[in-house]
Amino acid sequence: MAKYYSTKTFGNDRGFSCAFRQWRASSHCNQVHGYSLGFRFVFEADELDHRSWVYDFGNTAWIKSYLEELFDHTTVVADDDPLMDHFKKLDAAGGCTLRILHSVGCERFAETVYADIAPQIADETRGRVRLKSVEVFEHGANSAIYEG
Length: 148
Fold this sequence. Notes:
Layout: E1 4-10, E2 16-20, E3 33-45, H1 61-71, E4 74-78, H2 84-92, E5 98-101, H3 106-124, E6 129-139, E7 142-147
Parallel strand pairs: 2-4, 4-5
Antiparallel strand pairs: 1-3, 2-3, 3-6, 6-7
């Protein structure tokens, strides 16, 4: 069966300025560092809509808002980070905007975003459109993809 795909990218040039750390890393990634994150969404459908589109790109403002809330000028740490109390104090003092996720890294960011966005895409399109994958870019050389 034929499938149609479309993509929406919020690139590194637009970027979401996010600081995070992977405390389990044995490299310098265990320290707070940041990237201008980029995101690429792949939508799929078996049939096009009445406009011959997979998904209306003009209807992605809610996705951008979601990404801004989670990743733009925020500090993201894992819920089991041993420095959690310090991050919470920094957040309370206005030194950062803390976001706590189950795990940290591009792979987990892609998975989290997919889990939050995919059901809304399906609901909005009555199941006609599926979110195939989410890719998260640290920069042009590093990215991770989660496919549902």
